[in-house]
Amino acid sequence: MSGDEMKLEAFAQEARELDERILRELERSPEISATIPQDFAARVAAKVPVRQPVAVRTSHYGRLLMAASLVVLFVALVVLAARGFGGSPLGQAIEWTLCIQFLAIAVWMGTQSRQSN
Fold first, then answer.
1. Domain count of the chain?
2. CA distance linking residue 23 with residue 31, whole number of Å
3. Max CA separation in the chain (angstroms)
């Protein structure tokens, strides 16, 4: 055996030993019960400040946007009806889609106003 082969063999042996040590350490479960005091959770919980309940304010931005959407949909429906856009199948599909959206928003706003009273 030459010197280089012996060095490679020694290096391979050291690599195997290192792999075995790493594997043993990874498979070993750590012992943490001795490092964490028994009353640790109670002490941490005692240091947490008491949170005051937050007052929730409701805004009416959603209702205003829905009302604006109703107005825009209504104007779009009137304009499309005045131009006779419903003569083609595509025009009828667009008009029906806008009508369904208009009715859905109107029903939603009606149910929301009843629930808030």
1. 2
2. 17
3. 100
Is 72 in the same domain as 31? no
Is 54 contained in some domain? no
**What is the rounded distance in angstroms from the CA atom of residue 50 to the CA atom of residue 95?**
56
Cβ–Cβ < 8 Å for 67, 35: no
Cβ-contact 66, 55 below 8 angstroms: no
Q: Are 98 and 79 contacting, i.e. CB atoms less than 8 angstroms apart?
A: no
Question: What rounded mean pLDDT belongs to the chain?
Answer: 86
Q: Are residues 67 and 110 in the same domain?
A: yes
Give the tokens for residue 57.
């304010």
Nearest to 65 by CA among 97, 98, 100, 108: 108
> Tens digit of pLDDT for each residue in 38-77?
888 899 999 998 888 888 887 888 889 999 999 999 999 8
The reported pTM is 0.47
Q: What is the DSSP letter of 34?
A: T
